[in-house]
Design brief:
Elements (H helix, E strand, L loop, with lengths): L1 E6 L7 H15 L3 E6 L14 E4 H4 L1 H11 L3 E4 L5 H7 L5 E4 L13 E3 L2 E3 L7 H6 L9 H17 L5 E4 L2 H8 L8 E3 L21 E5 L8 H15 L4 E5 L5 H9 L4 E3 L5 H9 L3 E4 L9 H7 L5 E3 L15 E3 L6 H13 L1 H15 L4 H13 L1
Helix pairs in contact: 8-12, 11-13
Amino acid sequence: MKIILATNSGTVIGGIETYISTILPYLIREGHELLLVVSGKWSSELTRKLEIRQVSIEDSGLEKVIEAIRNFGPDLFFDNGIQETALVDLLHESIPLHKFSHDYRDSCISGMKQFRRPFRNCKEKFGKRCLLRYFPMGCGGRSPLTMVKQFRRTQINNRNLNKYKKIYVASHWMLEEIVNQGIKRNKVIKIGYPPTICPDPNALNSKQLTGNILFVGRMVAAKGWMDAIKAVKIASKILKKEITLNIAGNGPQIEMCRSIARDDLRIIYHGNLDLNGIQFLLKSSDALVVPSRWPEPFGLVGLEAMGQGVPVVSYRTGGIDEWLVHGFNGLFADEAFSPESLGKVLSEMLADPLQWKNYCVNAFNSSLNNSVEKHVARLISEICS
C-alpha cells in the first residue's frame, strides 16, 4: 500500500514526531511504500536515517509537493497534524483521508483546551463562542490578532474533520473530544500509542528504593515541572529523608530550571536526553511524577516508565487515566493541580518498601500489552476495513 504520512514539523520536537519516527520502520517492514510530507524544514532526525521518500513544503514549495504526491500515486493520506489544509482540500475527493488527532489543534484556539480564569479544563465544543470566552476566561495569550489568526486556523481544521474517513485517537478522553465536535462516534477509533522505549524484562531485578524521582517533559508551565519540584520537597519533608528530583527535557523555561537546580542540590537538570538517556534515568528512579497542568491527550511518558518497572504519581487530567490505575500501578493526587496533594501521595507511595514494590510489579505488567508491532497491525487493519 502506498501511504502519504503528513505532519507539521520535519524535526522531532514532541510526541507527534516521536510517534511518526516510531512507526516508520514497522510500516516499511510490512512492505508499505511511504512518502513523508512535512510543512516545515526537512530533517533526517524524523526518519532515523531510513531510506524514505520525503518532501518539505517549506523547502520545495506547495506546487512541488503536489507534483510529488501525484507522481507517488498514493492509496491513502494519513494526516498527523499537517497545517497545510490545501492538501486536504486537494486529496479528499480522490483518495481516502485518515487522521490521527494527537492534540487539540482541531478544537481549540490556543490548543490548550483550558481556562485560566478560573483554572480548569475546557470541555466546550469549538465555535464562535470561543472568541467570547478567550480573553475573559484566559484561554490563551493577550494578542487579539493572534486570537483571530488561530481561530481561523482552528475553524478550518475543525470543518475538515468531516473529510476524513476515520479519525484515530490515543485515549477515551480524546475520543469524546472529537465526538463533541460533531463527528460520528463510529468514525473515531481509539488506538492508543506505541511505546518508544520497549519494556525491559529485567526491570524488576534487584529493585530497591534509591531516593530518586524523575520528571520528563517539555520545560513549559503546562507540563508542571515547578509542581514536581514542590511535590518532591513536600514528600521529602513528610518522609524526613532526602529525595532527589531528576529533570529531563527541553523548552523555553530551561534557563529557569537550570537556575533553580544550581541553588538546590536535590534538583538535577539533565538537559534534553535521547531515549537511551531517559531509560537510564528510569532504571534508577523510584517513581515518575507527571504533574501536567493541562489535559494531557494521553501522556505516553507514564506508560514508558511503567515498562521499566517505575510507578507513576500524577494529577488526574485528560487521558492519563487511560493507563494509570489509582492504587494499582500508580497514584493520582487527591486534589487537582495541587503540589501539596501530589507530594502527599508521592510520600505514601515511598513510605512502605513492600507496597512500593507491588506498584513496581503492577506498573511493569501494565505495560506489556503495548507494542509497536501490535499498534501498527491495528492501525493498518482499521485503515483497510
